[in-house]
């Protein structure tokens, strides 16, 4: 039990560090559009290109993420209200047009998105798509991000299909919204610091809600994912230690038996 307790303490102490190492962190509000792929990772975002079809990025195909042929899913980070979300896929090596993509998830299934994190399972590819095949996932949606006008936004993630038996990564598949991260109200702070209360209240209201900013939500979400991974590793190591301990005790108990005495007792009338 001491080992398992030590591992859990190490995991707990590592959570703040893991959250700090997130890709989409507190400053991500000016480094991503209203919606971005958390997994698989998307192409580099640019404010000048995020309304440009088909991928909203000046970056072409670079690194591809291994993606399972069966039971695949995508994880999204949302920092601004969005709606009419299309999820599509192209099996071309380097798609250039919207016509190169075919619809995977219809807009009526994701009619709107609120700030937070969402996960969606994807249907398996056609039978003629085999291990090693390339593909590109596309997001196409509407938002009023940094504008009072509704605009169409795009994002793409490049993938390579692998057999499900060879896919060992844990997809960060869970759902959470900004309502789950409510900031403390000014009345809950000390009355001796009115100027700080006023500034906090103004900064919260400027974000349009009483929750964290889009970038803050993104940082918390990735921190949770890293924390869950560390906790899972801790329990795995603790369980493995306990199994080895039981096997060792069993071996010692077997060795301590005087087999000659056992044989004599068996042979005696």
UniProtKB/TrEMBL annotation:
The lineage of its organism: Eukaryota, Fungi, Dikarya, Ascomycota, Pezizomycotina. Residues 184-210 are annotated as: Disordered. The chain crosses the membrane at residues 216-238. Residues 1-20 form the signal peptide. It comes from Uncinocarpus reesii (strain UAMH 1704). Residues 32-177 form the Copper acquisition factor BIM1-like domain. It holds the Pfam family BIM1-like_dom. It comes from the Eukaryota. One of its GO terms (cellular component) is side of membrane. It is found in: Cell membrane. This is Copper acquisition factor BIM1-like domain-containing protein. It is a lipid-anchor; GPI-anchor. Keywords: Cell membrane, Glycoprotein, GPI-anchor, Lipoprotein, Membrane, Signal, Transmembrane, Transmembrane helix.
